[in-house]
Amino acid sequence: VVNGVIALLAFGVVQRYAANFPLLPKDVYIRAIMAGFGALVVFRSKIFVLRSEDGNAIGPEVLITAFLRLVDRTIDRERAIERHAMAFRFSQEITDFDAAADFLLASLVAFQRLGDDEIKAYNATTEKLKTLTEEQMTHSLKAISLVFVFMDIAGEENLKLTFGLLRQYMKSRPATPPPVPPHPPEQAHDVGDATGTPSLTEGSGEPLPSPDIVSGPEVPH
Fold this sequence. Notes:
elongated, mainly alpha, 221 residues, 2 strands
């Protein structure tokens, strides 16, 4: 767009002051081509770029590059607001992080021209997120990060469609059974006191007599 505007302005200048340039061809199309290429040489090449003593570049190309960078940054800031809101909204639907990450990884196979490096980068990021504990990163932050990673590869429209399929997938999965509570530890029986005397009781609740008290009939010698 910027190159087209520059070429159009150059062509307007050539048409306005054509009488001052007798060597210009009379064909309008030839003038347009010459004006376009001439403007690109002046404004987009580094021929007219000078460097000051401190190393800073000065010239038309530097000004245009700075202007384009400013426009890109402004658009990126506006898009970041929408992307953040979208990522937060979709992250609320992720109840099982591992299952959602695996499903989104499988959905990337639908892209026929997706490079292996991008899939490996996605897989490495999600695997690292899986290893993080709740103290290191909460489930909500991991879910938002997962949505951002997938959005950067698939785009916003594919993100909406894929999460519609993810909802159906999560509903079709069997419910996770509740965890079984651990059995309480068995209480140890009191088998004696500090003197080593057994203190087990019978049905009456009274302590058993000590072995040195219970004696049978004396055996004659």
